[in-house]
Specification:
Blueprint (H helix, E strand, L loop, with lengths): L14 H25 L3 H13 L4 H8 L3 H13 L3 E5 L7 E5 L1 H6 L8 H12 L3 H33 L3
Antiparallel strand pairs: 1-2
Amino acid sequence: MSREPEPQNRWALTEEESRHLREFITAMVLNGQITADVAGLRPVDLYVLNLLDIDGETTPGDLAKRTALTTGAVTKLIDRLARLGLVQRSHDMSDRRRVRLTIAEKATENVGEGASLFTPIAKRMDDLISSYSAEHRAVVFDFLVRATEELHEITNEMQNRRVRDRTPH
């Protein structure tokens, strides 16, 4: 009498842990969507403004790499944000052909670290994380740093695959 093989989780996480992680990721994406809607922006606009606020300045090429967008898509996005007065372009003083991008003061009022748009979520996350001991906070931030690295890596891999798949052989 043969027995049916028992179903195996192909991941190390339990089904419950996996569900919680997926719910967290979905909640983050949905929060980004509604936050962008409230700001009258597209989610990608908000993400780019956040990157500019974090980095201080960048180039369109670096932004394309960080967002996994094509350079053409980044140009259109930056044109739109510049028209809205949210992004500023300037020429690199060491190479006038190179363009530098910074977040405009108008955008920092709504999108920057202390912005009113993010105050509700920032306050809640600050309260939540601050409620943990220093030891547990270290684990939370270790996870966040390592998860961010993994997300960047898989995003780059997928972007490279997309480019490879579009290239005629």
